[in-house]
């Protein structure tokens, strides 16, 4: 192996791949086979964290950053004047295996610029996965990018070797896509996604009848949207997201704050802040939809087209629906407990467990780890001391935010400290 | 005057103590491992010999009456080696035997709450080891890693690495406790190394590791740098996920 040459390629092709935020390695059920290498039956593991605080779980690289397309938001776009490189199939296999053996990574996340055409590119990605599985008996995690427009046959094959497949729709609305990537269309993204979805459904059905049906993309599909490159509202973004969850049974939708990389006048100029707080709020909303039993229409709608930046979406929702509170935590069902600001799912489950033994009071709640400072405006418990003032939504918000130890202010401050211009925050 | 019961520091030793406490109906004895035992003027120290029959009886009793979660709580919090954990455990086990439904999930009980926190930190340390261990390939073809975990998590990580690295020989060595695991392609053995573990820490001019090893480490460091997005830099978050005391394991954090 020519380490110097590989190093150069790795720098270029890891750098180009980093804007894809997904690094998950969980959700697969691939166990070690015949004393081979690797196992991805457990939870995903973050082996390290970058200085931007993101989990590094996979070797995330492009096979090549040559590309025939010119999507304005992408560093790899044809018209961009950058160094180009391409890995050979065997080089990616060797890197993956050697990193894996040293416990650096959980597996490989392989994406690519599009060279020649979609199928030609997809074929090479599949070749890497196939080699890892069949020649190296590698049972680590493999995430392949589905290349928009790739044929059904290739997508079928890809799922036989990969744990996860993803195609990034990148721009949340069709009009935005037209503006920034005129030679691409939504239908090309949908096609491989549709195929993979159908294969997964079919696999699950067959599996019930024939035990040794070869597994197909056990960790499912995901996608990513870039936030802040085009001017969609949070509602537009999250409704798109909700429909993708529903129509394609996606495991995850990722939101990636746009990192300015171009002087193109259609895009935010270089130096514009990465909208990280907005990204964070979108993730919280996504979370509320998937784990807390919220419906998207409760969180975002005509009256509320955008999320609050200074408070989280659950608190915003509660403040808009004060008539539903306070909730008696010794009686309320799980569904309602999960809606109390300050109570995460972990606290909710602990409350349900613990209240079988006795009625819970403030001390118990603190011991359990609930954020009583926030929750107290929305709940009652086995105590005579509780919030009796008839506070308005604005007052409660003010009280929560002015609490100096408030997590909100801290995160918001950290958030702003990220950028060299520290702005004073008035709330 | 209260008793201090001293045991050999092993899990079986501790369970033997529990047996003795029940057997002789001792009231609130203090339990201490031999490596930490402190003789005081006002109390009587008794050494308890580990007895595998007694310890097995206690353990079987727990299994019979409890569920896998109780087992997990008792074993893992024991491995924390925290000062005084034995007495919290004793209290917990007494309550458990009195009424096995009284402890599970009962976070209003101080011992239950304390143990659940301890277990959480032991499990966190275990996961950190799963994540932060970095193997280096030695010239005799063994993937080698050293650790210094806060708690005695070696027994907990064994299976994870065995499942994962089934086709390579590896050693994970706990420098703090001077013991390790060696997987010889068949089974995992417990080992103690004769050579000074300190010798293994040196890098660069290593005689132990292959030239290729250093090249891979270099590639990994490069990857770590390239995958970072400078305009999103957030060291607070970075350090929160990877506390500085773990950096010594991580080749990517060495300059
Ligand atoms: S096709 Fe993909 S790699 Fe090529 S410019 Fe568009 S987004 Fe970038």
Automatic annotation (TrEMBL), chain A:
Signal peptide span: none
Keyword Iron-sulfur: yes
GO molecular function, one term: catalytic activity
InterPro entries in the record: Aldolase_TIM, DNA_rSAM_put, Endo/Exo/Phosphatase_dom_1, rSAM, rSAM_sf, RuvA_2-like
TM region(s), chain numbering: none
Top-level division of the source organism's lineage: Bacteria
Cofactor: [4Fe-4S] cluster
Keyword Iron (UniProt): yes
Pfam families: Radical_SAM
Keywords carried by this UniProt record: Iron, Iron-sulfur, Metal-binding, S-adenosyl-L-methionine
Chain ranges of the Radical SAM core domain: 62-199
Entry-linked PANTHER family: ENDONUCLEASE/EXONUCLEASE/PHOSPHATASE FAMILY DOMAIN-CONTAINING PROTEIN 1, TYPE II SECRETION SYSTEM PROTEIN K
NCBIfam families: rSAM_link_UDG (TIGR03916)
Protein name in UniProt: Putative DNA modification/repair radical SAM protein
Originating species: Patiriisocius marinus
Automatic annotation (TrEMBL), chain B:
InterPro entries: DNA_repair_put (IPR023875), DUF4130 (IPR025404)
Residue ranges annotated for the DUF4130 domain, each copy included: 85-252
Pfam families attached to this UniProt entry: DUF4130 (PF13566)
Protein's recorded name: DNA metabolism protein
UniProt organism field: Patiriisocius marinus
